[in-house]
């Protein structure tokens, strides 16, 4: 809904138009020509070939990793969504690493995996961006009551939060279902934070660091 998939398609089309010598919808354009454009967009299976949605994703990704060069453009939209969260995140992370460190080509890679964003936020080869929106009636207790206006503008930095519950309300999902989902989301987030804290304590060897950590927990 924010427009990221449309933006990725737009980038591919504009590059093709520019390299053909056509006008592009911009006041100014500076472009280093690309040798090929690779895309992994959308989600569909191939029933007659017996290939699932996830298999199609991986097949297309495999072709990209084998054929892309440093001068290629790669557009990947939500790789890994066709399987379990941890597997999908791991595969997406490995592919981003391959594109940014080995192939070193220009890429647009979209994801809803916040852990993936955290992993690459300090990577010098990766720049984070998100589709901007304006939030009215911001409400952490009941996010479904927030009013979201999508600005369809690509801005720097990671997206501060997800607005899935607002999308659910716009799609007329029953209110009791949305409220149940909000409670489940809070429990999941609490569980994840607890695991993070446990790992931090487990890795802490200094008594002073452990004392500081315990004070932080007490304050929260």
Number of helical elements: 7
CATH architecture of the largest domain: 3-Layer(aba) Sandwich
| Total number of distinct structural domains | 3
Strand-residue proportion: 5-15%
Strand order of the largest sheet: 1-2-3
The main sheet comes to:
3 strands, parallel
Signal peptide: 1-26
Protein name: DNA mismatch repair proteins mutS family domain-containing protein
InterPro entries: DNA_mismatch_repair_MutS_C, MutS, P-loop_NTPase
Domain DNA mismatch repair proteins mutS family: 72-88
Question: What features would you describe in this structure?
Answer:
This protein has 3 domains: 1-127, P-loop containing nucleotide triphosphate hydrolases (Rossmann fold), CATH 3.40.50; 128-173, no CATH class; 176-219. Helices cover 49% and strands 15% of the residues. It contains 7 helices and 5 strands. It has helices at 4-20, 53-67, 85-103, 114-120, 164-170, 175-203, 207-219, and strands spanning 37-40, 73-77, 106-110, 129-136, 147-156. It has a 3-stranded parallel beta sheet with strand order 1-2-3, sandwiched between helices. It has a two-stranded antiparallel sheet with strand order 4-5. The chain is globular, with a radius of gyration of 21 Å. It starts with a helix and ends with a helix. Keywords: ATP-binding, DNA-binding, Nucleotide-binding, Signal. Belongs to the DNA mismatch repair MutS family. Residues 1-26 form the signal peptide.
Secondary structure: elements and pairs:
Layout: H1 4-20, E1 37-40, H2 53-67, E2 73-77, H3 85-103, E3 106-110, H4 114-120, E4 129-136, E5 147-156, H5 164-170, H6 175-203, H7 207-219
Signal peptide: 1-26
GO cellular component, one term: MutSalpha complex
Pfam families: MutS_V (PF00488)
């Amino acid at each position: 809904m924010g427009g990221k998939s449309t933006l990725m398609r737009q980038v591919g089309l504009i590059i093709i138009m520019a390299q053909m010598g056509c006008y592009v919808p911009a006041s100014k354009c500076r472009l280093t020509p690309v040798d090929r454009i690779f895309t992994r967009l959308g989600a569909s299976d191939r029933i007659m070939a017996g290939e699932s949605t996830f298999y199609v994703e991986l097949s297309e990704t495999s072709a990209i990793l084998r054929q892309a060069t440093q001068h290629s453009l790669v557009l990947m939209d939500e790789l890994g969504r066709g399987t379990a969260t941890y597997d999908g995140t791991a595969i997406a992370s490995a592919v981003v690493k391959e594109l940014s460190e080995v192939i070193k080509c220009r890429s647009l890679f979209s994801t809803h995996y916040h852990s993936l964003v955290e992993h690459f936020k300090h990577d010098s080869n990766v720049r984070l961006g998100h589709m901007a929106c304006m939030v009215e009636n911001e409400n952490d207790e009941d996010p479904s009551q927030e009013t979201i206006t999508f600005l369809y503008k690509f801005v720097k930095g990671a997206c501060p939060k997800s607005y899935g519950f607002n999308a659910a309300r716009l799609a007329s999902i029953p209110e009791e279902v949305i409220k149940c989902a909000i409670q489940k989301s809070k429990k999941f987030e609490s569980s994840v934070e607890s695991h993070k804290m446990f790992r931090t304590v487990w890795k802490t060897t200094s008594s002073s660091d452990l004392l500081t950590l315990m004070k932080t927990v007490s304050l929260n």
